[in-house]
Amino acid sequence: MKGLYGLIEESAAKYPDKLFVQSQERAWTYHEVECIARAVSAYLLECGVSRGDRVVIFCDNSVQYIAAFYGILRINAVAVPVNPVKMAENVLFIVEKCSPKLILACDSTAEKLESTGGWISKRIVNIDRDICEGACSFGATDEGRETDVDENDTAMILFTSGTTANPKGVMLTHRNLMANTEAIVDYLGLDCEDSVLMTLPFTYSYGNSVLLTHTYAGASIIIESSAVFPLKVLEAIKKYRVSGFSTVGSYINLMLKYIRNSGGDQDFPYGLRYITLAGEAANKDDIACIARNYPSVELFIMYGQTEAGARLSYLSPGLLGNKQGSIGRGLCNVELRVLNENGREVKPGEVGEIVARGPNIMKGYWEDAAATDEVLKDGWLYTGDNATVDEDGFIYIKGRKSDIIKHMGHRISPVEIENEINSCKWVKESAVVESAVNGLPAIKAFIVTEKAYPLEEIIRYVCPKLPPYMRPNVFEVIDQIPRTESGKIRRSVLRRNQCAE
């Protein structure tokens, strides 16, 4: 097979002058980006990088990242993306774990790595300084192009967030990522006329899937680096008239609250064709709001894991009303089951663990056979996510097994409580964890408020919306909810912090 490099190679051949990437600096065509990717691969070959060698990409979302990613794949080396926002100790752990031949950085990120010194600093290559100049001269050569890629060759190693332990390196093959890419393009109906506003990190499984699907379709990617400000994102959607926007549940909540609090923008959604939500559960009121107020937008609720190349299931927009709260069913090439502790499929209403099988399931964890054996069993991925099913086989997430709160004889998903808290107009976001009061089990809610609203008012709003056994015993206002770089709540941090008090 041609491997994943074939995605950009074929799109550049079909649409050489079409916009591929729009960054804050400038616009780049498919031909221009592929030229830089070829320059990257030529440089890697000169440095002795060969098939199977790991190469770290330490770049923000940028054309440099994209060119580095495809340049590595072009010579059948292994891409290891590392988010530059990670803490220094996490970066060092990942780099030492995968022993890369080289580390590709850019002007904005190289300094952070260079400060580490030692052997790591000697392997850093600055893409801007060492490669980009004169990149177009590589446009006509096929030197170094690997065309005999085995579909089971490892294409990339994506490290998990490491919210409770050291991150694990997920080995994804060319087959894993191609199968997932084709399935996502199919259900989203992507083609060369599409464009997406990119706020998710490419180093994140969800962001990586957006990069691959849009390259496959010959679509355009608009990079927006100011995602922390909903106004900036809304302005970018309007300015570039993108057809798609991919984000997480809590961010769509922030956007909708901004629209409401600013008096409502009658022009939203500015021509958006679709929105995808994954990575964390979305508030059911937010989903209903989009369906009610913006019927022209198709809203795709999706579910997946890094170990699955990104995506395992989706809920078709037409089923949002009838299957509220569901993550849908497996992709066309993915089989999903929900099993109880005895390994039998649950009946409707019973809770069990989601397991998955398909061509997108990872090869395993890098140099961690024990961890691999814990989650890969007889060809099935054990996701660690609890769920139930309905009579039609649609799946409903009940939270991570490790996050489940046991309280008053009940097993409670913190997401259910957070959704009710987040529906309060005075609350920006929240996180709920298991706690203790006077030595007795309790539920604690951490909340970030819009302004200095009285906590008592928020409690009076929230508690009647929840059954007694789900009502938080303790509320605490904090400045910020700790999250991983992929946007997931770091509940382990909140639990540790309250234990230390």
Q: What would you say this structure looks like, in words?
A:
The protein has 501 residues and is an alpha/beta fold. It is built from 16 helices and 26 strands. The strands form 6 sheets. It has a 9-stranded mixed beta sheet, with helices on both faces. Strands 16, 17, 19, 20 and 21 form a 5-stranded antiparallel beta sheet that branches.
What's the gyration radius in Å? Answer: 23 Å
Pairing-aware structural class of the strands and helices? alpha/beta
How many distinct helices? 16
Shape: globular
List descriptors.
single chain; 501 residues; alpha/beta; nine-stranded mixed sheet; five-stranded antiparallel sheet; 26 strands
Quickly describe the structure:
The chain is α/β, with parallel strands linked by helices and 501 residues long.
Helix-strand layout with pairing:
Blueprint lengths: L4 H10 L4 E4 L4 E3 H17 L7 E5 L4 H12 L3 E4 L6 H11 L3 E4 L4 H5 L3 H4 L2 E3 H4 L23 E6 L9 E5 H15 L6 E4 L6 H13 L2 E4 L6 H11 L3 E4 L1 H13 L12 E4 L6 H10 L4 E6 L9 E3 L13 E2 L4 E5 L12 E6 L6 E2 L3 H7 E2 L2 E10 L5 E6 L4 E3 L2 E3 L1 H9 L4 E11 L2 E10 L5 H8 L11 E4 L13 H10 L1
Parallel strand pairs: 1-10, 3-4, 3-5, 5-6, 9-10, 9-11, 11-12, 12-13, 25-26
Antiparallel strand pairs: 1-2, 7-8, 8-18, 13-14, 14-15, 16-17, 17-20, 19-20, 20-21, 22-23, 24-25
